[in-house]
């Protein structure tokens, strides 16, 4: 099974659960861009992005066990601004948007060098099958961290994660905020995506131009979302 097949299989699992519980979500970011521009996922994109309103979060959290039972790891720190689902090493991100004054906004963290290390350690401790997650770190190092985490109690792991996350937010990253008119997400249409019917912003091309610029139809392999996203309105040191 190649990466594209893994991605679609994982999405089908998640889509089935979200649809079953009437969760409103839409295809977003690189997955949306690839579908509209290339009629497929972008081959170098490492995940599929879905988005929801932050107010939907209380309906999604109770589904975590059902998602785990479907074979996906659920990784969620509320301060991390999104939910990460991992299956067979492939990731689906569920982005959380806030609605205020006609704007849809969300924030994320951009790592510095220390932040990348701390982020890697946090996820390795947090998820059960960390060895399956794509990482630039040596596999033996991941296995060592997993072994240490496995002998510690849940309470100890939680305490360690809390301390690492505090250091991460203080020294390892900067906060980036993006904003788009809310009508892009309140007015949705349906698109065929690998045989699945999935919601997308109705004014799809206008939205993609807002996020990726006038040349969004031209693939850009060196795109860095924390710097190149045209909807970024504020960043903080």
From TrEMBL:
Originating species: marine sediment metagenome
Domain LicD/FKTN/FKRP nucleotidyltransferase: 20-213
Protein name: LicD/FKTN/FKRP nucleotidyltransferase domain-containing protein
Annotated Pfam families: LicD
Highest classification ranks of the organism: unclassified sequences, metagenomes, ecological metagenomes
GO biological process: glycoprotein metabolic process
